[in-house]
Amino acid sequence: MKPKYFRYDAAFEKKFEKYKNQITDSERQKLKKRFEIFKENIFDKRLKTHKLKGELSNYYSFSINYSDRIVFKILDDEGIYFIEIGSHDICY
Predict the structure, then answer these.
(1) Closest to 74 measured CA to CA, from 61, 55, 91, 88
(2) What is the distance of C-alpha 4 from the center of its chain?
(3) Going from the N-terminus, what domains does the chain have, and what CATH number goes with each?
(4) Cα Rg, the chain, nearest whole Å
(5) What is the Cα 53 distance to its own chain's centre?
(6) pTM of this prediction?
């Protein structure tokens, strides 16, 4: 699925900026590549996108690297709403 648009709240934007400032240049390049893949197909196998369970059962996540994820919701009109970024422990 190729998303029609992206949304995020101010809290996500702050966390995303903080996350980017804490990673290396090579990790930043990998993050950029992940978003390029995500923009074309949110379910690309390289992203390991999966539906969450429990209290977050309306959400999905995709992998940035081995330990970090981005949590998002697919909106009814095929938009994407970013919720959280961080380690597996933070996101779940």
Answers:
(1) 61
(2) 16
(3) 6-91 (3.30.2310.20)
(4) 12
(5) 16
(6) 0.90
